[in-house]
Amino acid sequence: MARYIADMTDQLQPMPDDWQRALAVVAHPDDLEYGCAAAVADWTDGGRDVTYLLVTRGEAGMDTLDPATCGPLREQEQRDGAAVVGVSTVDFLDHTDGVVEYGVALRRDIAAAIRRHRPELLITLNHHDTWGGGDDRYWNTPDHVAVGRATLDAAADAGNRWIFPELVEQGLQPWGGVRWVAVAGSPEPTHAADASAGLERSVRSLLAHRTYIEALTDEDPETYCRTFLTGNAQSLAPRFGGRPAVGFELFTR
């Protein structure tokens, strides 16, 4: 798998558009809403099929709610947020929130989903140790790192019938049709999708996680969501022809 590398001063290239099916694999409910929902809204508007796969149900995400109560609530908020941007299929893997482990079991589960949904574009969230760049860096969570790296590996696993042969026995034939893996939220973006048309819906999609957001911040939820998403999209505009954008680090296979 080769990587396109861009300096932070480089212009971002447009995301590929010659694909029909995408699978987005992330650790928690809200990861995609914080990361790339504006791009997803534009893609589904264009007739493309996008499926979400959540490795956990985010059950450890709120100190004020025990996991047994929090998990189902966050699952429903994720389904509601996905629907806002045109995503109807949202699957969950039931790994334990907060202690997701990179390893064979996680790779197998993601490879199985890739074989099931047969995407050309695979999307995940920042797998690097940190977010941001320069002096504005902060530590990433182990769940994000584990899921992002396992997704990169599972793209190859899914196409090799001799890796996880038990999946073939389950009727999941190899799928080597993943052409790109796009990492949202990467501190090293190389490509971008225009966020102009989907930005408003991305705000509403993140707002669907209202219970979580209200536990996270004392700010007005709508103000918080709009400020965060608009600020991120506008920060990439100088590198994308002046247009608000969602950035991706793009790997090609």
UniProtKB/TrEMBL annotation:
Gene3D superfamilies: LmbE-like. Keywords: Zinc. The keyword Membrane does not apply. It holds the Pfam family PIG-L. SUPFAM superfamilies: LmbE-like. PANTHER family: LMBE FAMILY PROTEIN, N-ACETYLGLUCOSAMINYL-PHOSPHATIDYLINOSITOL DE-N-ACETYLASE-RELATED. This is PIG-L family deacetylase.
